[in-house]
Amino acid sequence: MDYLAGLNPQQRAAVENTEGPAMIVAGAGSGKTRVITYRVAHLIEKGVDAFNILVLTFTNKASKDMRERIMKVVGDEAKNIWMGTFHSVFAKILRVEAEKIGYPSNFTIYDTDDSKSLIRAILREMQLDDKLYNANFVYNRISSAKNNLVSHTEYLENKEIQAEDSSNKRPLLGVIYETYAKRCFKAGAMDFDDLLFKTNILLKNHPDVLNKYQQKFRYLMVDEYQDTNFSQYTIVKKLAAAYQNICVVGDDAQSIYAFRGANIQNILNFERDYPELQVYKLEQNYRSTQNIVEVANSIIANNKNQLEKNVFSDNESGSRIRVQRAFTDNEEGKIVAEAIVQDRTSNGLHYNDFAILYRTNAQSRAMEESLRKLNIPYKIYGGLSFYQRKEIKDLIAYFRLTFNPSDEEAIKRVINYPKRGLGDTTVEKIIVAADKYNITMWDVICNPSQYIEGRIAGQLNDFALLIQSFMAEAKKLDAYETALYIAQHSGILKELHTDDSIEGRSRYENIQELLNGIKEFAEREDIEDRSLAIFMQDIALLTNDDRQDDKDKDTVSLMTIHSSKGLEFKNVFIVGLEENLFPSQMSVNSRSDLEEERRLFYVAVTRAEKKLSLSYATSRYRWGTLTNCEPSRFISEINARYLEIEVAKPTKSLLSEDGFNEERRTWTQQREFAAKPKMSSGPAAGSPAAPRPKTTTMLPKAHVPSPGFAPDPANAFQTGMDVEHEKFGFGKIVNLEGSLPDVKATVFFQGLGNKQLLLKFAKLRIV
Ligand code: ATP
Ligand code: MG
C-alpha cells in the first residue's frame, strides 16, 4: 500500500473510508482529484471489481489522466473502470438502453451546429422573426429547460414559464421546444442535453434499468461536483440510492458554469440528501507557491457568497506576481511570447510548462501570432475540433445516414453535396411532405412519387439507392473499407480532389487523415466490435483535446479559463485583464455575475505552480473598433505587495513593421511594499506616464515573415489593415479569429457594414 504514503492524514482518511456518502469541499490544489484517483486505486486493491466503479469527470482529458495514474497502481484492471464525462458515460449507457425509450440504439448525437441548424429551420417554417427568436437564444432556453428536467409538455403547461415568455414577447418558445423535441425524436437524434435528460427519463420510467445500474455502480465518484447541473445531480442521486457509496469533491469557489445551469445548491443539497454524510476538509495546497495561494485567497475573499475555507501552502514563497501592461493586444502577445522564451531558457523549463489563459477564444489570435513569430510550438485546447471541419462533417454525415437514415440534419447536409440537382426547394418539399404525412424525410426520399410533385423523383431515387448501397456495404466490409467506399462513391473524394487550391488540398488531406484514423481503429485488438457504426457512435462528443497525435509534444498550452479547470502548469499567463473583457461586460451589472467572473479569475490564478503573470492592453480591437481599455478591477483587488509591475516601454517599434529584432522593451519596476496601486484609470500607478501613440499610427502593418516561419498567405493579415475584396470593394479588417487554416475575418466595408469572411476563400488583397 505504498501509494497511501503520498497522502496527508485527511486525504488518507477520505481515501480509506470507502463506504457511505462522503463529500470534500476544499480549495484549489488541495488534492481533491488526487483523493478520487487514489480512492479508486484503493478500492481495486481492496478487491472491488473495477467494473463496479463509476467515476465522473469534467473533461475527457481528466479521465484519461486519472486512468493512467490508477493504472500505475493497479495495472491493466484500471481499463475496466467506468470513467468519463457525464455525457460520454451516459451516451454509452443510452446506446444499450435506447430502445426502451423509443430510440434506435444507433441514434445520432446532434452537436451544437446540428441543433442550431434544426432550430433555424423550425423558425423559418414558423415564419418567426429570427432577431426576436434568435437561434442561439432559443437553443440556450431549450438547453436550460432540459438541464432543469422540464420537458416540452411541462414547459407548455407551466403557467409561470408561459407568463415569463409572454412578458418577454416570445410566447412561442414552448411551441418551438415541442417541435424541436419531436423533430429530434423522429430523426432518431439526441442533442447534448438529451444525453442527460433522456438518461433521467430512462432511470425514472424503468425501475428495472435503474436497478441494474445501481447494482453495477456500487461505488460512484464525481470530480468538480460544484459544476454539475440539476439533471446531472439527479442522475447521480438515483444511481447512488441503493448503496450510497458516493463520494463527491468540489470547490464552491471554482463554480464557473452557472450560465449552463450548474448550481452551488447541489453542494448544499448533498448535505441534505445524506444525513450520514462524512465531510473531509483539505486545507493544504500542494500545487502553488505561498504567494500564489495567498493571492488566490485574497481574490476570493472579495466574494460575499462563499463557504468558509482555509487554504495554505508549505511550498516556497516564490516570486511575485508579474503584472505587465501593453499598448495593444498584439503587443501583449509579444510580451508573453518573449517572456516564455526567456523563462524557458533561464529556468530550464519545457514549453509544456507554460500555459496562456484567456477569457474569450478570440484572444488567442494575438497570442498565436506572436508565438509563431518566435517559433514557439503551441496547442490550442478546446478550439475547433478536427471533427467539426466542414469536409469531415460532410463525410461523417454520409456515415451517419448509413447507420441512421432518419437523421434529418445529415440528410440536409449531403443531399446536394456533391451537387446532384437536389437544391433547397426540393429539401423544403421533402420537409413539408414529411411533416404532412408524419413520416421521416428518408421515407419521402425512398418513395418520392408518392409524396411530392415535380420532376425530381429520378434524382431522389438515385440518392436513396446510393445510401442503400452504403448500408449494404457496411454489412459486408470492415470499418475502414466501408468508410473508403463511402468516401469514394459519395463523390466527396472526387470533389475535393479536383480542387487544386491549397485549401482544397488540405481538405483532401483531412479526409485522408480521417480515413487513416478509421484504419487504425479497424485494426485495434483491444475491442471486440470494430465496425464503422461503433467508430461513429460518439464522434460528436469528441473535442480537439481528445486527439492522440500530439499527446507527447512539447508545446505551450493555450486555452480559455473555462477549459483550464483542474489542470496545473508551472508557469501561467493570464492575459486580457481589462474591464469589460475580464470581468466581461455582461457581468459587471450584477453581483452574482461579477462573483462568477471572480471565481473564474480564482480558477485561473490557482492553475499556476511556480510563476504567475497577469497582463492587459490599454487598447484593443473589439467589435470592430479600437477601444481604450482600463485594467481589470481584479488586478487592483490584489494586495500590491504581491505584485511586480512591468510596463512595456513605448518605442518606435510600436509604429514599425515588426519590432521583433529590437532589444527587449520592458523594464521592471520593483514596488517594495508600495501602496495599493490605483488602477482604475490611466497608466498603472508608479509607472511613468507613457505618451499614448495616436490610434491611427498604432495600427500594425502586415508583418514580414521572419526566417524559419513558414509564409502563409492567411497569415499576412492583421486587424486594422486596409483590404480590397472583389465584390465588396475597400474595407478594413476589424477582427480576426480562429486559427489557420480557418481564420475568419470581420471586415468593415463602407456602406455595407461588417462582413464575416473566411480568409482562405475571401481572396482579400492588402491595399
Ligand atoms: P483543483 O481544485 O484545481 O481541481 P485539486 O484539489 O483537485 O485541485 P489536485 O490536482 O488533486 O488538487 O492536486 C494538486 C497538486 O498537488 C497535484 O500536483 C497533486 O499531485 C499534488 N498533491 C496533492 N496532494 C498531495 C500530497 N499529499 N503530497 C504531495 N503532493 C500532493
Ligand atoms: Mg481537481
Automatic annotation (TrEMBL):
Residues 5-289 form the UvrD-like helicase ATP-binding domain. It catalyses: ATP + H2O = ADP + phosphate + H(+); Couples ATP hydrolysis with the unwinding of duplex DNA by translocating in the 3'-5' direction. GO terms for cellular component: cytosol; DNA helicase complex. The keyword Transferase does not apply. It is an enzyme of class 5 (isomerase). InterPro entries: DExx_box_DNA_helicase_dom_sf, DNA_helicase_UvrD-like_C, DNA_helicase_UvrD/REP, P-loop_NTPase, UvrD-like_ATP-bd. This is DNA 3'-5' helicase. It comes from Pedobacter nutrimenti.
